[in-house]
Amino acid sequence: MDNPHGKDALxxxxxxxxxxAEYSDRGSRFIGYAFxxxxxxxxxxxxxxxxxxxxxxxxxxxxxxxxxDGNRFRASDDGEPSGSAGxxxxxxxxxxxxxxxxxxxxxxxxxxxLGVPGLINAYKTAATFALxxxxxxxxxIEDEYEVEFDYTLMNEVMTVVKRHACSVIRQEMQLFCLLRxxxxxxxxxxxxxxxxxxxxxxxxxxxxxx
Length: 210
Prior knowledge:
By secondary structure, this protein is of the alpha+beta class. It has helices at residues 40-53, 86-95, 115-133, 154-163, 188-196; strands at 11-15, 19-25, 28-36, 59-66, 72-76, 101-108, 136-140, 142-150, 167-172, 176-184, 202-205. 30% of the residues lie in helices and 36% in strands.
């Protein structure tokens, strides 16, 4: 997948909420679950929950793509023939240019073998239906910054943070405060300038989190 979210991109598409839909073929049921996800650990937790919800299903196939660079992705056939499930699911996520998005398709076997073409169609269709039910939403791309300041400047700093709809990622509030914020890329220059214009405030690009 080409990366459409380079340094000049201002927003990205993802899902606003979880949705599900079902597709049937020759007795087999394919239930697709599409949901937004921020990291691999959150995905693993939701997959674990779905396996508990569907303990008698024969397969729990999935795909996800996470991160603006497009490089964090996985596609699993979970025992189905290679390439018949995970890749078709991932293809539907990518065709909609969605990121921070996962789809799990749960299969109940109906007694008739579908063959690889039938499986590809079934998993692709279940994923498509689930993604169509939950409309995509546009989210601003944020650049992370660290803001250091004396506690007495809290109101001035938070006024700028709220004005530009910045997200607060982490905060350490003592006599001397440290905020890690996400600044929407479209207002980054203005936001940083206004923070730096407050006497006693230091604003710098955040270091990579380990």
